[in-house]
Known about the structure:
By secondary structure, the protein is of the alpha/beta class. α5 packs across α8 (160-181).
Amino acid sequence: DIYSIEDLAQLIFDLKNSNPSADVSVKLVSEVGVGVVAAGVAKCKADHILISGSDGGTGASKWTGIKHAGAPWELGLAETHQTLVLNGLRGRVTLETDGQLRTGRDVVIAALLGAERFGFATAPLIAMGCIMMRKCHLNTCPVGIATQDPELRKKFEGLPEHVVNYLTLIAEEVRTLLAKLGFRTMDELIGHSEVLRVDPAFASSPLHFLPILMPAHRLPDAGKIGVIENRKLYKQEHFPVLQDLVDRRLLTEFAQTFRFGDALYKEFTGIRNTDRTIGTLFSHELFKRWGHSLAPGTCHAKLFGTCGQSFGAFATKGVVLELEGDAQDYFGKGLSGGTVVVYPPKSATEQGFVAEDNVIIGNTALYGGTSGVCLVRGLCAERFGVRNSGVWAVVEGAGDHCCEYMTGGRVLVLGPVGENFGAGMSGGVAWVWDPKGEFEKRASMVDTEVARLKPATKHDVYPHEMDDLKKMLEAHKAFTGSVVAGRVLDRWPQSAGEFMRAFPNDFQEAVRQAKANNKPSPLTSIADVLPPLPGDAEPRARKRARQDSGTNGKGKEVPPVTRQTSDIEELGKMSIDKGSRPKKATAQALVLKKGTGFLAFDRSELPKRKVAERVKDFREILDIKDTEEIQTQASRCMDCGTPFCHQSVTDRSGCPLGNLIPEWNELVRTGQWHQAFKRLLQTNNFPEFTGRVCPAPCEGACVLGIIDDPVGIKSVELSIIDKAYEMGWMRPMPPTCRTEKTVAIVGSGPAGLAAADQLNKMGHVVTVYERADRIGGLMMYGVPNMKTDKTDVVQRRVNIMAKEGITFVTGRAGHIGGITEVAGGDTGLGMGPTAEQLLDQFDAVLLSVGATVARDLQVPGRDLQGVHLAMEFLSRNTKALLDGGQVGKGWRQWWGKSKSDPSAPAPIDAGGKSVIVIGGGDTGNDCIGTSVRHGAKKVINLEVMPKPPDARATSNPWPHWPMIFRVDYGHDEAKPLNNGEDIREYSVSTKEFIGDSSGKVTGLKIVSIKWERKDGQMRMVEIPGSERVLEADLVLLALGFLGPENPLAEAFGIDTDERSNYKAKYDHGKGDFRTSNPKVFAAGDCRRGQSLVVWAIKEGRD
Length: 1102
């Protein structure tokens, strides 16, 4: 609460009184004009000034602040150093800077610009294991750094040596640069910016570096005020200010208390408004001697007169400061266990002065108080009790913003209050005497119980409320002689019904939990801090303050207070017992509790049908979803400040679409499914596709995955969209108006459909051409039906798009004329429009035909019958199923027997055969699952790469996609064919396909290999003597894809790159995706190469 340079000067004065031996540091944000502010700060007697750059911090703040607040530290530091030198102030303050200092070079540059100290925070935190989750303020740090949760703290794995090593490397680099520059010490370096040079690349830049690089000691006016100083040479002169303090008299008068702990009462007259911060220095010295051991009221000082600012600031336990007079701003600032009392002079009240109608203390009383008692007979100005966290206070009326941001303690207002009462209040209890019923108009509380007291009924959370309220009234009357308190007590307990209570709901819940867990209640007792009331003879007669140990402590230092705490190092490493926690909350209330689900629950995925059941048909493998289990899984989301799940830091991490994953996880957790659906569609046109076939790079980048199994994001996504279809939320929504633009899209895979959907929503007229007989591309014929149902999922979505106005042209009519047919069952010449016709008819053409040229394995015997590309096998199987119209257990009855398309090639049957699938990935797994359903006798999967590790390798860091060993649905289904063992063989290379006399494949020769680095590259090396032959009736090659088919590029006259992809600009700007033909654009795998469905959708959207 610093509103002026005078406020800052007062705060520095308060802090110097609270600890005279400590330096006072002031942090200033680097921005234009900070030098003038820093000069004022130096004149306010600050010892240390920090210029903080815009790039630092954990980022646990609003995004606008992170992006736009402040300027680079170099600008603010140079300006501050120059201004201090010109004003003769540099020698009295230490200058520091921070803001993403990371290297020794940063340190040297900062020193040359004038800094003596250098703040490192983010980099050492990362060295200790920080992952920049940006949720330091929520107590949910998953690596145990910024948290008080004992379970989370167990996950901390940092070591002091990590930070030491990092800073040692910084120091080594600094020493090297010092030597190169010719300086012997850091002191010599400070302020000599003349050795800095501008990068030649910026020589012609409009930026002017001279104002930054000009050495301050060479400026024309340097030395005109004071002397030229480049660094701190002497301390600030605090002594003349601190010398003539009332506290000096207090220290002398209470000497007996300091020596022996005696309880004393002293009076002091002649207090003036120049007497600031009374009681602070006294409390500091008292606390150094006795700590918290003195009883309340041991040192009772009564003062007479008008006090200046910060009366009783930081007063500690055992101190009573009673003021007969009035006080200014910051009364009781930071009260720390002491008692402050103020009331009008008795001579004034005897002459008719009405205390309850007049202001007696200034603004911002009790700001940041933590404990103690405050009794004010009269009105307070604005902001009474702001950020109070434990003080028991009584005031007879307050201005605006009373109890703002209060987190604990009790406040009793015996009079009117201003606007905005209790805004941001989250703890403690406030009572307002409101006989006229006007209080509720003034309150600005959210999530707080505001109710009138009922004397006959005890509050269920605060049953002794009436007793505490009465004690506060009695203490207020006894110390101040309050007439108002006397009137209320005269009618007690009937008058209790005239009070309104403000009691935050979260604070009530904290009290309940403490009681349930047998922990100390947050509702502390006033007896812990209330001094003896005037007239209580026994405590006044005490000559010695008894100690907790039972001795008077005469002549001895009080032993330090010991507390039972657990240090990070004592807690040790945590081994998460994955699989031992529930996957579904037993009570819905547990799911609705935000922020800690990742501690309580295990990861779960959507259930699959049992293997023995699902291998008999081609229905989807997913079973019925459990809504509560999905909500429980959503509750595991940590709501990261910087979620890596929804951003692609690289091509190998995060969701390319930028799905707002934490947002729809939170909506699902609370049961807001429709809102989650709307949020999901903002970034993903086809969540029903990605929720089924995407490998989920978002889960690989999930922050929780660093310490535990990641959130089942894919399961939540699919559940949202399936719920939307079930509830009828997913329905056609044609654009309200149309433009005159027409667009032709060639190819109906995920990229083409996404582009069509986006363009149609903009009002353009879109026509999609697909050479296969059904729309969907990869999603229709590349992905098998058991992963994504073609009728109930793909065609359902296509039908909605058609109703929204998109025209689909399939089969021969959708095949671009003159292009040789490859897939989809139509082997005749194309009957559709030519490339020239499309360019003439449409304003733009988008090519999104995917990467359909498969990588082959050209070894001897490749031409044998029974050796097929994986896509031949999968696409023919799916077409036969769809033409037959049956995917259930009776699928074989109609499979491949439909007469609707006589030109369709026959499906490849794996039934009763020994099948070998060469290549892994999703395509290889789909071949395995399809072969098992056909009734294959045996299935073996060969992979040329070594077996992946069970956990991330050091070369595969988070948040990149984890290259680890996985068991997919196909591997599970094929295990029974291999005596329950995994069917995969790793690190093998195929040498030759072996066939019989009829030209059919009967086996293949393989050899084991190892990978060795040669000439800077990893190369395969065959292991001698490891050759062997495997039996095979059917070999499927799932080796990935090389790129798109070139005839289409030739027809449209567009360039291709060195990998045969359609060459199109991609600079994240205007003109992206445009090919060498200005009317032709390319998106998806045909532009970027083989990739994921989610990347194809992103390309289409972009």
